[in-house]
């Protein structure tokens, strides 16, 4: 896996996992994101360990993040993309997308997917479109998995 570290002014984007502040990522994902409220720190750590991660740093402060889950041959899922509000409006999300889409290990993939509620315009600039044939896609989706009201799994329902 090719490690990238690119600096522009006071900002750096890196795939070097040793520079990730997973406590800061967890804080954002669990308290500020709409897609993973209450996500446990251990889940964030496990997800990062098994993904290609992109840290956006201001000095040493974690101000943005994204991760890609991929087989590096055919398919990639882009998730957990954010830039802290205090650092928005400086082109960081565009730079992050350029870096992700240009990563050498993510070239030649047949399909990328992501889910977003409000950033369609950003992703469209990088070739993303609504699903061409959504009727072929299926999902198992449990949006409350990290809450106290989550539907019990078979294992947790067994006395």
Automatic annotation (TrEMBL):
Residues 12-143 form the N-acetyltransferase domain. Gene3D superfamilies: 3.40.630.30. InterPro entries: Acetyltransferase_Butenolide, Acyl_CoA_acyltransferase, GNAT_dom. GO terms for molecular function: acyltransferase activity, transferring groups other than amino-acyl groups. It comes from the Bacteria. Pfam families: Acetyltransf_1. This is GCN5-related N-acetyltransferase.
């Amino acid at each position: 896996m090719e490690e990238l570290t690119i600096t522009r002014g006071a900002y750096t984007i890196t795939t070097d996992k040793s520079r990730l502040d997973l406590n800061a990522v967890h804080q954002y994902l669990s308290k500020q994101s709409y897609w993973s409220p209450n996500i446990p720190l251990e889940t964030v750590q496990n997800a990062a360990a098994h993904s290609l991660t992109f840290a956006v740093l201001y000095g040493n402060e974690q101000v943005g993040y994204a991760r890609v889950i991929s087989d590096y041959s055919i398919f990639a899922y882009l998730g957990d993309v954010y830039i802290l509000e205090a650092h928005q409006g400086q082109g960081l999300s565009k730079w992050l997308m350029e870096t992700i889409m240009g990563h050498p290990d993510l070239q030649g993939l047949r399909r990328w997917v992501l889910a977003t509620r409000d950033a369609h315009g950003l992703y469209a600039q990088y070739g993303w479109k609504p699903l061409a044939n959504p009727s072929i896609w299926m999902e198992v989706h449990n949006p409350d998995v990290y809450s106290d009201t989550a539907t019990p799994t078979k294992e947790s329902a067994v006395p």
